[in-house]
Amino acid sequence: MKCRVCRAxxxxxxxxxxxxxxxxxxxxxxxxxxxxxxxxxxxxxxxERALVAVSGGKDSLALWDLLLQLGYLADGxxxxxxxxxxxxxxxxxxxxxxxxxxxxxxxxxxPDDFGFDVRSAAAADHRVPCSACGLSKRHIFDQxxxxxxxxxxxxxxxxDDEAAVLLGNVLHWDLAYMARQHPVLPSGDxxxxxxxxxxxLGERETAAYCVLQGIDYQVEECPMxxxxxxxxxxxxxxxxxxxxxxxxxxFYGGFVDKAAQLLADIGEEGREGLHACPRCGSPTTAAQxxxxxxxxxxxxxxxxxxxxxxxx
Amino acid sequence: MKCRVCRAxxxxxxxxxxxxxxxxxxxxxxxxxxxxxxxxxxxxxxxERALVAVSGGKDSLALWDLLLQLGYLADGxxxxxxxxxxxxxxxxxxxxxxxxxxxxxxxxxxPDDFGFDVRSAAAADHRVPCSACGLSKRHIFDQxxxxxxxxxxxxxxxxDDEAAVLLGNVLHWDLAYMARQHPVLPSGDxxxxxxxxxxxLGERETAAYCVLQGIDYQVEECPMxxxxxxxxxxxxxxxxxxxxxxxxxxFYGGFVDKAAQLLADIGEEGREGLHACPRCGSPTTAAQxxxxxxxxxxxxxxxxxxxxxxxx
Lengths: 312, 312
Fold this sequence. Notes:
- Two copies of one chain form a homodimer.
- Chain A has 13 helices and eleven strands.
- In chain A, about 50% of the residues lie in helices and about 10% in strands.
- In chain A, strands 7-8-6-3-4-5-11 form a seven-stranded mixed sheet, sandwiched between helices. In chain A, strands 1-2 form a two-stranded antiparallel sheet.
- Chain A has one domain: 3-Layer(aba) Sandwich (Rossmann fold), CATH 3.40.50.620.
């Protein structure tokens, strides 16, 4: 197979584009896809400061690298989740990436800074680990973005992630979740703008990007995600994609282009009734403390402190 | 496992209801599900005459039997599709069912009455066989219902069928198709009312109904449907259902209850610009002949006759 662009030998095949790429043209293809996504959805304007949520895995490191390559002002945010045999290693990849590029990495650690980890929080709050983890990360993302004075938070959700989440939401017609599943969530009501610039790249492509760009990333999946329902949705979509390449992109892209507008009113309703959490100030619909402050209280038996931040 | 209703030994398990049933209670369960569906959606009023589209397979014969058991006035409509090694056998099952119950079976035969079969029509019209077949059946369903003076056409689409079609429509966000995917399509603009009373029963349940009720049906699948994209969607949903029983019912039921109303305007648009086909009188949006009359013309090189009907 030859590179679609320059006819040199291809090293990567992207079946849904029915195309192969050589190394340099593939890296350029990824940059183009991300730049196009950012421009189309007005995700980041020139001169704005972005904070990239960095896990140490392929998606988030590819995103950070791509934003830097494209000339955006992008710092990283790493959250240590205290997951044994996983979090220590993921931190190494995030820190090494930042050091090699002399980039700024904001670091928050659940055990050191809040006194709990994902496993203990899940047990204390009677949640599955992925739920306690997601809640903690979303809260820290928002607060670190606002307190650091960033204009926008960028996450490394790729096409496979978004298509699987969308499938789960559609299978249960969770209209409120669907209304919020857009590549850009605008700022407002105490929330920072949040963007997903990788929604045009599949997970095979972000992995290939890292390999070809020489980015070392954590290959191991989180040990606590085994059996996660979204993995089942990914499997189902992969089986369909295998028969009909391009289905995932049509599914997610068609939702954003054609269906999301039907849900606009529902999305607005979701932000009604917000007030500031009396402890941390974050917007919440809960009667008293926000869900994160309640999680901290249950997991530690203590009142939480303000967001502690250390910078590399 | 014991019968959920009477505690006798269960012979059928329905995982999404987390229940087993003995023979009699399972048959009653099926009748209840169908009666509830008919009432909830005002599908058939007492005294109305229904025409049941009968293929000879488990779903359509179960439907016809259930409607008769529930006291509805229901005749059958069998369409011979001229598919070698399949259609002859399917006719035997449909006729035997009708004979045993002294029920009326309207019969239409594509080769005898229109001079073509599914294979030749597909080739002549450059369609896949399932497309030529579906087009022909929909046309004959409508016309036989109207010309026979029936109030409503009933088809045996089950939960698995509808969930798979919905998944295909959702994966491509075919909003116009989604807007028409309701268990009832009201009459109007030259179309008869169409109803799907089996949408609360899965295909394992319609098969079990036939077995336990002593209905002989054609087990063989249509040989022309191999590779049909919907079979891929069924496989994907079955894999998800296996992990999370009830997902299919939640997916289809949630669509009908929560999402369909968002598409109401789009459904209306689909019926704009209809006029009567100058040859057969059927409603069509095509500039001249309706799609079925064009199919007949291409497949036979001849003008079609009015719908011929023979009754058993």
